[in-house]
Design a protein that fits this description.
The chain is of the alpha+beta class. It is built from four helices and six strands, in the order H-H-H-H-E-E-E-E-E-E. The strands form two sheets. The chain has a three-stranded antiparallel sheet. It has a three-stranded mixed sheet with strand order 2-6-3. Helix 3 runs antiparallel to helix 4.
Length: 229
């Protein structure tokens, strides 16, 4: 592009800029002239002041509303956290209570089961005493044939009684001559001397002992060996 054209454009831009500045100055002068010609009245000035005050109050209200909204959000969050914690604690309490109730229920059922299991203990002891009497009678070896027949009948009854005891969970304690004396399942009736057995050995079984399931209800009565010192 020719240099004289660039120079021409620059001159035009400068002239336009000067015109705009002149227009701005003219507008300012006109505004001042209008204010000078028509000064604001007291009422207009008060109205403007009031408008400015209202605008300022609106800004304050907007700021307060924003602050209130922020506080409300914080309150809502606190309430939500509180509800969450209360719910968690309630669930924990319900779980603990449920476990405790289940524990007590199981314990009650176990105690009831144990009570039922050993409810026959007293009656079983009476029955065992009768059985032991039959057994002692059968230990006698008669020579009279009639008594032998009676003993056969007693033996039949004794077997029936023992079968009944087994069905009720009552089992005979197995003790043999020569066994070591065990105070947990035996009771000593008498100390005796023996040439064949050593001290504290069972020399004779007086009456059989029994357990109701795993509970001792009748110890085995025995004589045990005690050497003379």
């Amino acid at each position: 592009m020719p240099k004289h054209e660039n120079k021409k454009e620059k001159v035009e831009i400068k002239e336009n800029s000067e015109k705009e500045e002149t227009n701005i100055l003219n507008e300012q002068e006109i505004s001042k002239s209008i204010d000078t010609i028509n000064p604001k009245t007291k009422e207009q000035q008060e109205l403007e002041n009031l408008i400015q005050q209202v605008a300022a109050l609106n800004e304050i209200i907007i700021a307060k509303d924003a602050h209130i909204a922020k506080l409300q959000n914080e309150i809502n969050q606190i309430n939500q956290d509180y509800v969450t914690k209360i719910t968690e604690k309630t669930n924990e309490a319900n779980t603990t209570l449920k476990a405790k109730i289940e524990e007590l229920t199981n314990k009650a059922n176990q105690e009831l089961s144990m009570h039922k299991k050993y409810a026959l203990e007293k009656q079983a002891i009476n029955l065992i005493d009768i059985i032991n009497q039959f057994a002692m009678a059968l230990d006698y070896k008669p020579t009279d044939p009639n008594i032998v027949k009676y003993q056969s009948g007693f033996q039949m009854f004794l077997t029936m009684f023992k079968n009944l005891l087994t069905e009720l969970g009552i089992n005979e304690i197995v003790v043999n001559i020569g066994d070591e004396f065990n105070p947990e399942i035996m009771e000593c009736i008498e100390f005796v001397h023996s040439n064949e057995l050593t001290d504290n050995k069972v020399a004779k079984i007086i009456t059989k002992g029994y357990k109701l399931y795993d509970r001792l209800i009748k110890p085995t009565s025995v004589n045990i060996v005690r050497k003379k010192s």
